Each structure stands twice: as C-alpha cells, then as structure tokens.
Task: structure prediction
Amino acid sequence: MVASAASTEQSVADPNDVEKIDTPVRIAVIVGSTREDRFGPVPANWIADQARKHEGMEVESVDLADYECPAVMGGDDPDAPLPDRVAELGERLARADGFVVVTPVYNRSYPASLKNAIDWLYSEWQLKPVGFVSYGGITGGLQAIDALRDVFTEFHAVTLRDTITFANFWEVFDHDGRPVDTEGTAELADGFLAQLVWWTRSLREARSKRPYPHAG
Ligand SMILES: Cc1cc2nc3c(=O)[nH]c(=O)nc-3n(C[C@H](O)[C@H](O)[C@H](O)COP(=O)(O)O)c2cc1C
Result:
C-alpha cells in the first residue's frame, strides 16, 4: 500500500536524479475516458505510437479503465493506505516524468473518471509537465482541456500551451484507428512532443537540483 502525499512539502530535490538528466524521459499517456464503447483508446494509441517514434522518450500507456478508483474517497487521515488499485495507479504515475492526458469532452468539460483519478493522488502529478490531446464535436474538446489546466495548477504542474484537438473526431480517424491525414497529424504530434520533451527534461532537472520553494 502507498500513502499519497497531499502537500508541496513532499516535493524536494532528489540528488540521485541528477544523473538522469540526459536519459530518456518517461511519459505516461493517460486514457481519460472509461465508459463502454469509448473512443478514447484510438487517439491515445495514436499519440503513444507517435511518442514511441520520437527521440528521447520512453512511453507507457495508462488506461484508467484498468484501475478502479472508487467514487467515494477515504477520510482525512493522510497516512491511511490507498485502495490497492489506486496505489498501483499512483506507482505507475509516480514513475512518469511527464504526462499526455487524452480526454473527450463531456458536457463542456472532462469526464468524471479523469477527475476521480486526479483527486485520489497528489505528489504523483506535482511539478511535472502535462500535454493534452482532446477530441469531441465542433470544439474538439478544447473546453475539457481548459478545465483541466485549472485542475493541474493545483499541483504546480506545467500544462503545455500547445495542444492536439480533434474536432469531429469521427471524420479524423479511419476504421483502423489511424488518422486519415497521416502526415499532417504526424507533423502536429512531432511539434507537440518536442515541446513535451523540453518541459519534461527542464522540470526533471529542476526537481532534482533545487527544492521547490514554499509560498508564504
Ligand atoms: C456524458 C457525455 C457528454 C458529452 N458532452 C459533449 C459535449 O459537451 N460536447 C461534445 O462535442 N461532445 C460531447 N459528447 C460526445 C463525446 O465527445 C463523444 O461521445 C466521445 O466519443 C466521448 O469520448 P469516449 O468515447 O472516449 O467516452 C458527450 C458524450 C458523453 C458520453
């Protein structure tokens, strides 16, 4: 069992990490929707494949459907153990240096499955970069991303300005789950992933070298 930290006091420099500065960054691609018949794995697999081709990245797919994060959370005891599956999710996310969150838009925001997983954890997200891939109707899920930016601010995370949004996503991917515009989407991914690597390296180095200051 793993207890999750709930304050910035946990985010101190780890001198052992200094050696890792030039090693590949570890990116977790998170599938945010969990409903039956969901589309989420399609864009998630696509961006994970693009990332695997990208230099300097080790990629892991983390599907929230594989983790049962209870809708009812525990009490106020910060040392209380997390439910096993939440702890396992936390361990996988803690290993990541940065994230790609793949989200649909549900009623002008992001799905409850994503909020629930985010809320169960804390230090796992802290001071790490987060890039977004969204999909939806005419807005391409941009509303979900905007709402998520606000949430990740709580963790002193850095959300990438540039995003990948798939408007009318059913027109974007073919029946095999591949984008119809292979080259255009690959080019988009390339720039997005290059920025993600830049932020991931920068924040990993900063976390390992300098303790994060406490405000106030
Ligand atoms: C509860 C719910 C709310 C939705 N709200 C919106 C919305 O506000 N705007 C939109 O463009 N699409 C909306 N959709 C359509 C989703 O973008 C579409 O169903 C998509 O496939 C959902 O992602 P998923 O299949 O990975 O769950 C909604 C879908 C659901 C299930």
About this structure: Residues 24-71+80-209 form a domain with the Rossmann fold fold (CATH 3.40.50.360).
